[in-house]
Amino acid sequence: MNRTARSTTSLFFSIAGALSFATACGSGTVGVSGFEDAALDTYEIAVLPDDLSTFSELLDRSDERFVMVNMLVFKDMATGEGFDDLTGREAYQIYIDGLREAQMAIGSRLIWGGSVDAQVVGESDPVFQSIGLLEYASPTAFVGFAAEPGDNPEARSAGLRGQWLVASTTLNEGDPNAPTSAVPSMELPDVDSLVETTGLSEEQIGRVLDGPPDEPVFIVELLRFKNGNRSKYSEYEAGIAPVLEDQGARFIWRGSYDIFAIGAADPAFDEMVVTEFPNRNAYLLALSDPRTAAVAQSRAGGLATHWIYTAREALLTGF
User: Fold this and answer.
1) What's the pTM value of the predicted model, to 2 decimals?
2) Can you name the residues that pair with 30 across neighbouring β-strands?
């Protein structure tokens, strides 16, 4: 499905988001850059690859472990014989259940899987409902696996409306055994204050808060750097690192977006990042921290497109 997006793809500086206050480094005026709900020029999801030459591209990769990023959209209700009264997610789960042993046999590893609550920043139709990071032993292992239909291949098309399947390279991965910080859900300031200090709109803040208030939340970010240069955004990451630590955030994974095996995006993203927060308030408090505001222009100056999702962990379920 092609869709024509708004031509603006760079982040803008929100006048309403500008606020004068004392930063962690001293007193001064800091403009808090806004988060634009930017759309892509082309946004396509599909059930099967349009061009099998993609698999040739995959086999040209180094024969080493890599990650397939799965971003899924399900049918409301499953279609096809034998799937009466099942939702699309339930039918797709039958497909996944039929693949588990085969995945284990070729040494695959699920890094993380999540059920999306909301697309907080960015504009797409439809919105992805499930995201998973599945690591394969090699491109050869993946292509061999893809040729096998599994125990219930018909369940895939019965439940899946479409997806992005993107071959990716792990750039950094968090320690899965690292303890999580038990940070209580602190009270937030009023919405007007949050708009001023975070750069999020009132509607975007509502999307963040659309979920269980006291459960961990995963923030999934898709990043496209201006002119393909990551250095400016790296300044932002360095500046917010102590803020994330104070709010009990835990880094999960960062990887490059290399090859679209299914679906398409234009302009394409460069990276994906997954971070866990102890609750939704902690994420908003991290964004509203003066230390974050002090480096917000490095985020805006370094990114051409920024999509953000909130998700809850869903190990293998519906993925």
Assistant:
1) 0.88
2) 19
User: Token digits for 66?
Assistant: 């890599």
Alpha helices in 186-230 (DSSP H): 191-198, 202-208
- Measured at the alpha carbon of residue 283, what is the angle toward residues 118 and 182, in degrees to the nearest 5? 115
Half-sphere exposure of 122 (CA within 13 A, CB side): 25
Instruction: Give the list of residues 6+ apart from residue 139 with CB closer than 8 angstroms, or none.
Output: 58, 59, 61, 63, 66, 167
Question: At which residue do the structure tokens 């939340």 appear?
Answer: 217
Has domain 18-40+174-313 been given CATH number 3.90.1200.10?
no
Whether residue 6 has pLDDT greater than 50: no
Q: Which two tokens stand for residue 36?
A: 């634009």
What pLDDT digit, counting tens, does each position of 175-203 carry?
977 777 767 778 999 999 999 999 999 99
Q: Which two tokens stand for residue 264?
A: 């398409």
Other beta carbons within 10 angstroms of residue 312's beta carbon come to 14
Nearest to 167 by CA among 92, 73, 262: 262
DSSP class of residue 99?
Answer: T
The tokens for 57 are: 């591209």
- Cα separation, 88 vs 162, in Å, equals 11
Spell out the residues 6+ positions from residue 260 whose beta carbon is closer than 8 angstroms to its own. Answer: 54, 164, 165, 166, 268
CATH numeric code, 42-117+125-171: 3.30.70.100
User: What is the Cα–Cα distance from 43 to 3, expressed in whole angstroms?
Assistant: 6
CB 254 within 8 A of CB 272: yes
Cα–Cα distance for residue pair 260/270, rounded to 1 Å: 12
CB 1 within 8 A of CB 86: no
Q: Where are the domains of the chain?
A: 18-40+174-313, 42-117+125-171
